[in-house]
Design a protein that fits this description.
By secondary structure, the chain is mainly alpha-helical. The protein is built from 25 helices and no strands. The two termini are 48 Å apart.
């Protein structure tokens, strides 16, 4: 098995590199992205996992340019390992083939192997995470819980949103307890001790670099961009001049966005406004910005993540309903991929931009990304959304079945249900966590796409089995004489 995985990984690396070289105009990807420098320098807004990974690549190969090949190989090995476990768990080669095909041949995933970004490594770790969960369900060996916990902790240090994988670990521990009522403490210790130990090591690395014992310093900054979309003069605050300045900057944009008549339009604009609030130089380089901070906290005050978190929580406490509505919108957008739009939705978005062209005139970073999304025929868009909603419903059923099914450790199909329940918990926790602090970008949905492909594989293999009798009967039907 391992020899085939290694051969497959090498083949995949060359396949990926070949695509990148054969199609330089349509496929070639720049190694560095806007976020890459933060990882290369291990900035205080990044966790330790990926910077350490890049440091290892630099030490071994003498250059960061080896990252694409290394990431491709790790990803291919992880997918191959997951596919072998899925094949054993579902007793279906078809399920394994679907998982491998969806992950290895997906161009939206493949492009991240060529970038110094965390997506490739995070997806590889998610594949390993589910592979060891499947191995535990097949073997009942506690060491597989430990491996899953270790990988889950490492994933947190690669992408902080992967804290949500802990929900899957808790369900796995619950399932282990149901096998043996006396093992809850053992399962919890075996699973969560490696998880906590890896995160503690990441916090220690952050302390050595930045002098703070934490995994990263970015949560407040993220939430600040999302929450301050709703700031106005009614928000009680300890920074009145700063909040008044932000309200003047943001209110015209918010009023334009809230005129959208479709969810797709509101999603498209609001998602990019969050980044505008966080990063726009037109906001932070304005002398009025510095004057507001000096008036509130004294000359030379330096903002930090705690400052951003405090301002975000002030808005959320004052405006809970709008914030929760926005949270629901972006959770929904992660499931149905609102970045793909119909011609009608495109026209609605264009109309809002045209009517408020004065508001968006100097905010090209909002409009450039907004117009870059795909436009497909309405029936195709609705079919895609219906299929994804179907997977959403299936995940809810699987979660309930995994929590409330009868204790029966010997049943193979029950192990499949438990596996799907854990996948459901992970994707729901991940989407909810993302929508709470970020926007529903497809890039963030991609982080948990492994769960969706597992569901697609399970459904396809079940349908294939259910039609076995029909296919057998058709195969034995007499052929008419010519």
């Amino acid at each position: 098995m391992w020899l085939s995985l290694v051969v497959g990984a090498i083949t995949y690396v060359f396949h990926s590199e070949l695509l990148n070289r054969l199609f330089p105009s349509g496929y070639a990807i720049e190694l560095l992205d806007a976020d890459s420098l933060g990882y290369l320098e291990f900035s205080r807004i990044r966790t330790a996992g990926y910077p350490v990974f890049l440091w290892v690549i630099q030490s071994l190969f003498g250059t960061y340019e080896a990252a694409p090949a290394v990431q491709s190989a790790i990803f291919a090995l992880s997918v191959g390992f997951l596919a072998t476990q899925v094949s054993r768990l579902f007793r279906s080669s078809l399920a394994a083939a679907i998982v491998m095909g969806c992950l290895l041949l997906n161009p939206d995933i493949m492009k991240y192997h060529f970038k110094i970004l965390t997506e490739s490594l995070s997806l590889a770790l998610l594949c390993l995470y589910f592979a060891f969960i499947a191995r535990y369900l097949l073997t009942r060996r506690a060491r597989n819980i430990a491996f899953a916990g270790l990988i889950s902790g490492a994933a947190v240090l690669v992408r902080p949103i992967n804290y949500t994988w802990a929900a899957g670990m808790l369900l796995l521990i619950f399932i282990a307890w149901r096998y043996d009522k006396r093992s809850i403490s053992k399962a919890a210790l075996v699973g969560m001790l490696p998880y906590g130990a890896v995160i503690a090591l990441g916090a220690l690395a952050f302390f050595v670099k930045h002098g703070e014992f934490k995994t990263q310093s970015f949560l407040g900054f993220n939430l600040h961009g999302k929450a301050l979309f709703y700031v106005d003069s009614s928000v009680p605050t300890r920074a009145p001049n700063y909040m008044a300045y932000m309200a003047r900057e943001i209110t015209p944009i918010r009023e334009a966005v809230l005129t959208c008549s479709t969810l797709q339009c509101r999603y498209s604009l609001s998602a990019r406004v969050y980044d505008h609030i966080r990063w726009a130089r037109s906001i932070v380089n304005n002398p009025a910005y510095r004057a507001a901070l000096d008036a509130d906290f004294g000359s030379g005050y330096v903002v930090n993540d705690d400052f951003y978190m405090a301002r975000a929580l002030e808005v959320i406490r004052a405006k809970p309903r709008p914030f929760l509505e926005d949270f629901a919108l972006h959770a929904y957008s992660l499931w149905v991929v609102l970045q793909i739009k119909t011609p009608h939705e495109r026209d609605v978005l264009a109309d809002v931009v045209r009517r408020y062209r004065d508001v968006f005139a100097d905010k090209g970073e909002i409009l450039n990304h907004t117009h870059a999304s795909r436009v497909l025929p309405a029936p195709v868009v609705y079919l895609i959304r219906a299929g994804l909603i179907g997977l959403f419903v299936a995940s809810l059923f699987a979660m309930c079945a995994g929590l409330f099914e009868r204790r029966d450790a010997s049943s193979g199909w029950r192990n499949c249900v438990r596996f799907l329940a854990i996948a459901g918990v992970v994707i729901h926790a991940g989407y909810l966590g993302t929508a709470l602090i970020q926007a529903g970008f497809p890039r963030y949905a991609l982080d948990f796409s492994v769960c969706l492909y597992i569901y697609a594989a399970a459904i396809a293999s079940s349908l294939w089995r259910s039609t076995a009798a029909v296919r057998w009967a058709l195969g034995r039907a007499p052929v008419a004489a010519p």
